[in-house]
Amino acid sequence: MNLFDLSGKTALVTGASGGLGQGIAQGLAEAGADIVAVSQSSCETTLEGIRKAGRQGIGISADLSQADLLENVFTQAMEFNGRIDILVNNAGIIRRTPAAEHSREDWQEVLDLNLTTVFLLCQLAGKHMIAKGAGKIINIASMLSFQGGINVPGYTASKHGVAGLTKAFANEWAGKGIQVNAIAPGYMVTNNTSPILQDEARTRSITERIPAGRWGTPNDLKGPAVFLASSASDYLNGHVLCVDGGWMAR
Ligand code: NAD
């Protein structure tokens, strides 16, 4: 299983305080990586899991929607082990209001964190990876990188953008030893989807449409993240991997 071994690697995971980011960070640590967990809220429970897996980790608190802070966040991340081999752009928000009433503030907040921050962190990590001639970038996309969704026009635009950006960076950097790919999760049980989960009828109709017959959990992203972070995916570039219990196949 050496193909999937991440020993000696350091991963920066954004939005790692809970939800999918926590599952991804834990999966990468279990495969051998040390973790820089960045989030607006405390990453302490994530760091506990990383230590239990026998790896090292640090947390960095930052509002990643503030573009001016990102260079400093990346510098702090580099100070941990002197390297970032894997970047996971996972932090993201959603704002739900009908398209006709969707405010410009909601639109901008979502685009800032979900798309502009992804672009800027890819650039910061990418420059470092280009200098090393190796690196793995995993952006977290969505089913709404392919579909329109309901009441979430800003989110849908941002996630279509993440898919495009993944391909744009992948094209330029594939020849430099850097693989840029994305994971598009289906419906997963996290804070992001808790408003939907409170609506029993909608939850049931979504579940019925998922061929696997259940919603995903943060643990379901461990394997796909390890694959895209490891040398098992060295010839995979610009791919958006649906981890959705079959939603897109239906
Ligand atoms: P979540 O709300 O549970 O976690 C979001 C994480 O991002 C948290 O760690 C939070 O602290 C962090 N965060 C939010 N705003 C931030 C900011 N300004 N600065 C720094 N950190 C910030 O949500 P989740 O479901 O785990 O979402 C993770 C990613 O997965 C997002 O990009 C989301 O769009 C995507 N996604 C989720 C689902 C789903 O069904 N849950 C489906 C598809 C895609």
Automatic annotation (TrEMBL):
<dbReference type="InterPro" id="IPR020904">
    <property type="entry name" value="Sc_DH/Rdtase_CS"/>
</dbReference>
<dbReference type="Pfam" id="PF13561">
    <property type="entry name" value="adh_short_C2"/>
</dbReference>
<protein>
    <submittedName>
        <fullName>2-deoxy-D-gluconate 3-dehydrogenase</fullName>
    </submittedName>
</protein>
<comment type="similarity">
    <text>Belongs to the short-chain dehydrogenases/reductases (SDR) family.</text>
</comment>
<dbReference type="InterPro" id="IPR011286">
    <property type="entry name" value="2-deoxy-D-gluc_3_DH"/>
</dbReference>
<dbReference type="GO" id="GO:0051287">
    <property type="term" value="F:NAD binding"/>
</dbReference>
<dbReference type="InterPro" id="IPR002347">
    <property type="entry name" value="SDR_fam"/>
</dbReference>
<dbReference type="GO" id="GO:0008206">
    <property type="term" value="P:bile acid metabolic process"/>
</dbReference>
<keyword id="KW-0560">Oxidoreductase</keyword>
<dbReference type="GO" id="GO:0008678">
    <property type="term" value="F:2-deoxy-D-gluconate 3-dehydrogenase activity"/>
</dbReference>
<dbReference type="InterPro" id="IPR036291">
    <property type="entry name" value="NAD(P)-bd_dom_sf"/>
</dbReference>
